[in-house]
Amino acid sequence: MERKFYLEDIPLDDALAALRGALEAAGRWRPLDAETVPLSRANGRVTAEAIWARLSSPHYHASAMDGYALRAEDTVGASEASPLRFALMEAGEEGQYSVGQSGDDSLSATRHSPPLAAPVNTGHPLPTWANAVVMIEHVQPVTLDDDRPGIELRAALPPWHHVRAMGEDMVATELVLPANHRLRPVDLGALAGSGHATVRVYRRPRVAIIPTGSELVPVEAGEPAPGQIIEYNSLVLAAQVENWGGEVERWPIVPDNFDAIRNAVAEAAATHDLVLLNAGSSAGSEDYTAHVVESLGRLLVHGVAVRPGHPVIVGMIEDKRYEIRGTSPEPLSELISRNSYLVPLIGVPGYPVSAALTGEIFVEPLLARWQGQPAYQPPTLQGALSRKVTTHTGDDDFVRVVVGQVGDRVTVTPISRGAGVITSLVRADGIVRIPRFSEGEDAGAAVTVHLYRDPRDIARAIVAIGSHDLTLDLMAQFLAEQYEGLRLSSANVGSLGGLVALRRGEAHLAGTHLLDPQTGEYNLSYVRRYLPGQAIVLVTLVGREQGWIVPPGNPKGLSAWGDAARPDVRLVNRQRGAGTRVLLDYELGRLGIGPELVQGYEREEYTHLAVAAAVASGAADAGLGIQAAARALRLDFVPLAHEPYELALPRDYYESERLRPLLNLLGDDAFRAAVAAMPGYDIGVMGSVREVN
Length: 693
Prior knowledge:
Layout lengths: L11 H14 L8 E5 L12 E2 L9 E2 L3 E4 L13 E5 L27 E5 L11 E4 L3 E5 L5 E5 L9 E2 L10 E3 L7 H9 L4 E5 L3 E6 L4 E2 L11 E2 L2 H11 L3 E4 L7 H14 L2 E5 L10 H8 E6 L3 E2 L5 E5 L12 H7 L6 E6 L3 H19 L9 E6 L10 E11 L2 E6 L7 H6 L2 E5 L11 E6 L3 H6 E6 L3 H13 L4 E6 L2 H9 L6 E3 L11 H7 L5 E15 L20 E4 L4 H12 L13 E2 L2 H9 L5 E5 H6 L3 E15 H4 L5 H5 L4 H8 L4 E2 L6 E4 L1
Parallel strand pairs: 5-6, 13-16, 13-17, 14-15, 17-21, 19-23, 22-24, 27-28, 31-32, 31-33
Antiparallel strand pairs: 1-12, 2-11, 3-10, 4-6, 4-7, 5-9, 8-9, 18-20, 20-21, 22-26, 23-24, 23-25, 25-26, 29-34, 30-33, 30-34, 30-35, 30-36
Helix pairs in contact: 3-7, 4-5, 4-6
C-alpha cells in the first residue's frame, strides 16, 4: 500500500472549523435526540426541554412544626399577663369553622368559645379553617372548665405563622428547570416535588474506541515481552468520555492490518455517534487510519499544527453499506440501515499525552455540543514561568506545568514535554497554551495556566524545585496521608536550577547535592554564589550512594570512574546543572578525561529513574545514579561515592508554619523507616541542619 504522508498541517482553529462544518452539513451540529428516563437514572443528564411544575409544592397548606393549628385572629390579645385558652378539637367540631375561607373576618372569634386548636405534626395539612401553627413547646396543656383538654397561649400569632402555604416552593405551571440544564441531585428532588416521575433528556453520545497496533497487549495479559507495549490509551480515552457524559464501547486491540481496521471502523460507525481510532494516524508504513477513512468516507484533516498531538486525523464515515471483508455483511447492513447520518471519526495519535490532549481539544467540545452544553472551560490562573520555553514555530504548543504559590508569587514550572510521558499529565497542575509563531516564552514571562486542579490546592502546595531524589516522592506520599489537603509539588530541574529558583522566589525549597571541586565540600559554596546575602538553611534529607547503574550481571565489568572512557561503553548522562553531572565531571577531570572521550556524554536525562530506564532498555551500557533507581528497575549497581542530599530553604520558610509538616517528617519514625528500606540511603544524617549566611 502506498505510504500516506500528511495531506496538510493546518492550524488548530481551522481543524476544529473543518469538523464543525462537516457536522453542520450533515445536520449533526446540534444536540442529540431526546429520550425519557426515570429520575433515578437522570443525575448528570441534560434536560432536552423546559420542565414545568405539574403540581404545586406543597399542594396544600402544611404545618411547618409539631404543634397546634388555630386561627391567628383567635390569638389577638394573648400575653403573659393575659393568656388565652383553646379547646383541643374533637371529632365533628371542624364544621363550626367551615364557613368561608381560612382567615376570613366573617368567622368571628365568638363562633366557638373557647376557640379551637387542632394537634398537627410537621408536614400535616392544616384544617380548612386554620391559618397558623403554634409550636408545641410554646403552649401549656390545661384542663378547661368543662373538663375537656385544652392549651394555654401567652403570645399572639400572625397569620400563616409556621405554615408552609400551598405553592410556597413552586406553583403548578411554574418553570422548574430550563432546557440544556445538567441535572444535579437537588434538581431531581425539585422535579419529583413538582409531580414528575420521569424527565426528557438528551441521549448520551455513543462513542467507540478502537485501539490498533500489532505490538499492543492488554494489561490483563501480565508483564509484556520485549517489543510489546501495554495498551492503556483506550482506558484513558474511555474514562474521559464517561466524565464528559458519553457512553463508551472499547474494541479489542486490532492488529496493524488495513482490512481488520477498516472492518472495525465500519462496524463501529454503524452503531455509534463517534469513532475514536487510536494510533496509526501518522505517516509510517503501518499507519492506516487515513487510508481507512478515505475508503469509508471523507478525509477532512490529516495533521494539525499542535504539539503534542501533531498527527491528528479528522474524517466523516459516510452513509452507505460497506463490504465487510472476511465476514458476513448481513448483520452490519441491518445496523447501518438504521443510521442515516454521517459519523465523525477522529484519528487519535498513539503517544499517550497526545491521545489525552486530543480528547480534551477535539472530543470534549463535540460531546458537550451533542448534550446542549458549552465546551468545558477550566479554571485559570496567572503566573510567571520559572524557565524559558522554546516552541516549534507554527504550532500551538500545549506545555504541561506544575504551579505553586510562593509568597505573593505564582510560579509556573514546565515539566517533561515528551508526547509519550503519561506521568507528566499525572504530575501536571495545568496546561499553558503557547500560540503559534510566538517562538516560546522567556523565563519570568506572564502566562495563563488552564488548571487541572482546584486553585485552592495550588495555594496550599509546598513547591520544591531542584535535584531529583526518590525520597521526595516518598515525602509527598506521607504529606498527603498525614495532612489533609497538603501537597508537595516538585519539578526536577537539577541542583543549580533549584538554587536559581530560590533566588527568584519561585520555590519554598530546593534539593541539592553540588560538589565543589576546589574544596570537596557539598553545597555551601554554591549557595553563597547563587544566593548571596540570603539567610539559607541547609537541612540534610539523606546520605546516599552514587555509582554506575548497569545491566544485571554488570556485563561490561565496570568498576571505576575511568571506565566511562572505555570505547566499548555507551553512557547516559544527566542534564547540565544536575549535581550528579557535576560529580561525574569532577571525577573525570581528576583523571584527565574530557567529555569528548566519553560515548553518550551528550545524551541527557532529568531523573535517576530515567537514567536507569535508558540502561534497562539497552540504549546505554551505564549511567551515573543512585542505587534505589537501579534496584527499582532490577539493575545492578557499582558504588563509587557517598554524598549528602540536602534541602536548601530560606530561613523565613524554614521557620514558617507552612513548611512545619514537611520538616516534621524528618523525625517521623514511619517516614524514616520507609526511606531506610530503600537501598543506598543513610538516614543517620537525616534532619541535621547548618545555616549559610
